[in-house]
Amino acid sequence: MFDFWGSHVKKIPLQGLLCLLVLCFSFPLFAQQTGKAIDINVKDATVKEILEIIKKHDYRLVYSTAVIDACKKKVTMNLKKATVSQVLDEAFKDMERNRIKFSAYTVLENYPLYHAWSTGNKDYQLDTSYLDSVKGFIKEDEKLLVLKEYQEGMASLVSVISTSRLKEYDAYKRVTAQFDYVIHNLTNSTLIEFLIDHYAYNYLLGAGVDEHMGTILRTYDTYVKDVKMRKRFYDGYERCMKIVSGRPAMNFVFTDMAGQAFRLDDFRGKYLFINVWATWGVPCRAENVYWEKLEKEFENENIVFIAVACDKDRAMWEKRVRENPKGEVQLYMGSDRSFMDFYMIRGNPRFILISPDGRIIDSDMSRPSNPETAKVLRAYLKSSK
Q1: Cα 174 to Cα 194: distance, rounded to the nearest angstrom
Q2: Within 10 A of 2 (CB to CB), how many other CB atoms are there?
Q3: How far, in Å, are 105, 155, 156, 191 from residue 102 at the CA level?
């Protein structure tokens, strides 16, 4: 592993060093300090010097479009510089060159976000020269599919190109654009199959079985025939079907500060709004401000607000609860992650709404900061009176 912020550099494998060299020497770094972007030229700097700059200024890295072509041109040069032996098999070296290239390409998908963050321009759109450069990186070679870096790199490159004109984030529009580009612009059937599976599976895990899933399945079944791919996808589909609206909610056993156990059945007859969070999560703490406002707004209604911490360190959770006492029920999940697995929770915070009869209303409820959340809760409470 590589420690950017520590007091020393830990040992890293050759592959990791090569990737670091490619990224460091292929892209200029920009610092966001006191509202100003500072261009730091690292073209001729050593890795050690770059680390000293990072530790001194403590800033986030973003990438410049001005040197995208340099990435492709310099990768081979840096690989040659970093190679510790000239007797390596040529096929192996070629594979490693591709591994490094496509590992570097994965960062390009994040450029619009980094640009918006560094400039404050939330309406930024990728220009034609950027997209043309990215298109030039696409390489259809099914032999490279054995590399995870190639898989992720190609998926990122196609996403950059296919979704560049979407003005807002919409999961269905995004996957539709990805499908359309793959089907009409790529020719290798094995690569097409991989990418359709990749995008469909990610959509499934993110959106679940929604109103668009029928269309997704028709495209999926047309292009994906691989047995292992289909098994993974449809296993995920079956799991998602267990948490659609109307299905029984999973019973749970969580404990409070005093060690008292609480189960789903203890809240029968009331709506249950669950907040799965972690004390260390910045988004979790940000949403907790709105969560507390909602809890106060609905304190006399037939609904219970339950905050379930998924921290591994119970002592840390207890300390945070004592420092910030809340009105809602505070519970600790413990080491059993079956609840997280059942609801397919891959990130925090996650909000779940359960009906008075113990059935799922929404397994991925909108966040408290979303004005629609209060409206939805109010509508359900009104309809049950």
Answers
A1: 17
A2: 14
A3: 5, 10, 9, 15
Q: How far, in Å, CA of 25 to CA of 75, rounded?
A: 9
Cα distance between residue 110 and residue 15, in whole Å = 23
- H-run or E-run covering 332: strand 329-332
b/e code 58-72 from CB counts within 10 Å (16+ = b): ebeebbbeebbeebe
Query: On the CB side of 377, how many CA atoms lie within 13 Å of its CA?
Result: 28
Residues 6+ apart with CB under 8 A from 320: 279
Pairing mode, if any, of strands 329-332 and 303-309? parallel
For residues 352 and 343, the answer to whether their CB atoms sit within 8 Å is yes
User: What would the two tokens of residue 62 be?
Assistant: 């973003």
Mind listing the pLDDT tens digit for each residue in 158-215?
999 999 988 788 999 999 999 999 999 999 999 999 999 999 999 999 889 999 999 9
Pairing relationship of beta strands 329-332 and 360-362 according to DSSP bridges = unpaired
Of 198, 188, 22, the closest CA to residue 102 belongs to: 22
List, for residues 266-278, the tens digit of each pLDDT value.
Answer: 999 999 999 999 9
How many Cα atoms within 13 Å fall on the side-chain side of residue 28?
Answer: 12
Q: What is the DSSP letter of 258?
A: T
Q: Which residues contact 35 (CB under 8 A, 6 or more apart)?
A: none
